[in-house]
């Protein structure tokens, strides 16, 4: 066998038995075990075979059956006939020693059955004196053996017993047709129960559309792992331990649980492995301060911590964290706005030395300029910093960030409007090393920032500048033309456009990303771009799109592009969309919300076109022949 | 020799499952076994000494379920018995039946 991905050589015998102390264990404690059930089935089958053998032996020994086969045992004829005849035959005198033993054994079993409650009950119901026969009937019906022939308890017909054969109302097994009769009665009963409301075909259609918008749409079945994880998430209350599942799987389970808001004090325990270095909590809304403290108690070697919706991650938790020998390298906190400014400062002073990555989301007022001012001195290793949805940080804070010379990844989403000069200063100091730069909502940033990027950045692969009202097309042209930075992989320039409600159409100054900038950016980065977002850059002309995604002579192919967002680019037409599908062979999703000139475009199979302005909204199917589409539209 | 349309998967306890080659190829692990310079590639027989028969049976069920639904959208989910869930998860991980690949 080849070396397989996912196998672990540390285990001496690599049988997949599943973690012993998990669900399996819990079920085992309730006497449910797949293994046991299999063993039982095997045992039954063996026994059935032995019995069968014994019977055939017997038949060959006595060849005059008619003499002792009386049709007198009327109450339970079908089920008891065989063993009964055997017993009587033995009594008739053709007894070998083995028969004698078999008879004794059977007698013992019959005695046991006679003592049972079921027997007593049945006896009352039937008024039969022949206790032996009745006991045998029960013996027979208690162990139906798949594959054997049997007489139907209702119509008396002979049929083959299967695992699905049903019991008749008076014991014994039913043949196929009789079972169906019985089922009809059951179905009538079931109808009386209130039916759970389902979405029906509309609900399903809506689900598909919802998946498309989530980006989780795909043809075909879900992966086995997804199915398992979903089942597990549904039954998480049964699990006591996830055992030694590989780390990525545990993470997937954690994500799935959070989606259903199932993470609480109890289920948190499943994800706290003492030997782990990483804990990721995707929804900590139900966790209390003590639960967060418990993380540090159970996982002493913690290096990376990620908590979303960590509302109760407050001062006392930070106090506890500082009192332990845990030096986090990676801290991701989302929604922890009960940590005071003082605690943030204290934490950075005590534990900032080990921090390589700090990401802080939704902290309202307490993550301030003063906290950032400590960073250049207290965090010598910091390479990644994200401050998002922050209402407190101003230009002074950003100036402090500019002093952290180790930064490679920087992401800012501040509520305060800053002057472009602040950003220029930031790029001048940090630009050389930056690999990721994300500046969300920077209305004041202008061409000077673009020029700074052009002259300082050499390693950038991801860039986001959104909602700038000052940058001009000329600025973008200057940035991308002859930029010594290698092609960007990820670019988001959404809503960099002119905003003037009095003259919305006119753009004499070429504000925002327009045709020239778009051409230059595709020329510079097109070969490497995986995701491009030019949402709302509405002054890019149709001609620019057609040139960039042109077919025929001098055609360009953008192999890497997977996701393209051109919503609210007014000039986009059916022809442009067709051309895009043609020149981006690996494109998965194309968003065209608000492109009112897109009317009836045919989409290659497996690709997703979202936001077509008609009742359909989204189109996801079409022909495999992309060529035909383009020809038709041309 | 022309490749057979079917291949055989063998469980740890010796049970054999014969199924369409194309259906089994969604597992990159099995694909690797059948494409590489291995015995499996010549015989079309893959041994899984770590997967027991009742788990492998479910896996084979899944392969067929996947194959049947490969071109459909909005596919109903396959039932996974709760007690097999963790073991099946380990097997799925081993066979690389990962969500990213779908």
TrEMBL record, chain A:
Biased composition (Low complexity): 67-96
Entry's Gene Ontology cellular component terms: SCF ubiquitin ligase complex
Extent of Acidic residues compositional bias: 55-66
Domain DNA repair protein rhp7 treble clef: 146-184
Region (Disordered): 38-108
GO BP annotations, alphabetical order: SCF-dependent proteasomal ubiquitin-dependent protein catabolic process
Pfam families on file: zf_Tbcl_Rhp7
Top-level division of the source organism's lineage: Eukaryota
InterPro entries linked: Leu-rich_rpt_Cys-con_subtyp, LRR_dom_sf, Znf_RING/FYVE/PHD, Znf_Tbcl_Rhp7
Biased composition, class Basic and acidic residues, residue ranges: 97-108
The protein, known as: DNA repair protein rhp7 treble clef domain-containing protein
UniProtKB/TrEMBL annotation, chain B:
Entry keyword Nucleus: yes
Pfam assignment, any one: Skp1_POZ
A GO CC term assigned to this protein in UniProt: nucleus
Domain of life, source organism: Eukaryota
Keyword terms of this UniProt record: Nucleus
GO annotation terms (biological process): ubiquitin-dependent protein catabolic process
Subcellular location: Nucleus
Domain SKP1 component POZ: 6-65
Transmembrane segments: none
Gene3D superfamilies: Potassium Channel Kv1.1, Chain A (3.30.710.10)
Chain's role: Essential component of the SCF (SKP1-CUL1-F-box protein) E3 ubiquitin ligase complexes, which mediate the ubiquitination and subsequent proteasomal degradation of target proteins. Controls sulfur metabolite repression, probably by mediating the inactivation or degradation of the metR transcription factor.
Family membership noted in the UniProt record: Belongs to the SKP1 family.
The protein, known as: Elongin-C
Species per Swiss-Prot/TrEMBL record: Dichotomopilus funicola
